[in-house]
Amino acid sequence: MIRDPGTRPRPVPAPVQGARLLLAVVAVSHLAVAVLMWLNRDALRTQIVSQHPDFAASEVDRSVEIAVVSGAVFHGVLLVLCALLVGKLTTARRWTRRLATVSQLLSVVFSAVSWSSSPLFHVSIPIIGAAQLLLVALLWIPRSAREFFASRKSSGPPEPSL
Known about the structure:
With about 160 residues, the chain is an all-alpha fold. It contains six helices and no strands. It is elongated and about 60 Å long. The two termini are about 25 Å apart.
C-alpha cells in the first residue's frame, strides 16, 4: 500500500498484485535456470561436443565453464531485478512499471538465444515467456493498474525517467 500525505493508504489493485506474483515466479525461474545449468553440465558438454566436434577436451571444459558461469551471472542479475521490482511496484512509482515492462520484454527476446543454443529449457521458455507477457499486460491494460500508477502525486524531486 502507498500513503499520500494526509490520506489513508491506497490498496494495491489486483492486477498489480498479480504482476508482482508473476514477477516472483519469474525470479524463481531465474534461480532454477542457473541451478539446472550447473546440475546438467554433462548435457551441456554433450551439446558442445556435438556442435563443435573439432574442440579439444580442454576447450569443451572451458566452454562448459563459460556457459555455466555466464548463465549464473545473467540469471542472477535478473533474479535480483525481479525481486527488487516485486517490492517496488507497490510504491506506484511510474519508473517501477516502466522498468518491469522493459526488463520482462527484453527477457522474452533474450529467451530466443537460450532457445536456439540449447534444448535444455525448451519446455520452460514458452511458459515463462507467457508469464512475462501477462505480467506486462497486467501493469498496462487494466484501468485500475493504469490509475494506480497515474495517481502517484509528486512530492519532492522528479522521478527518474526510463
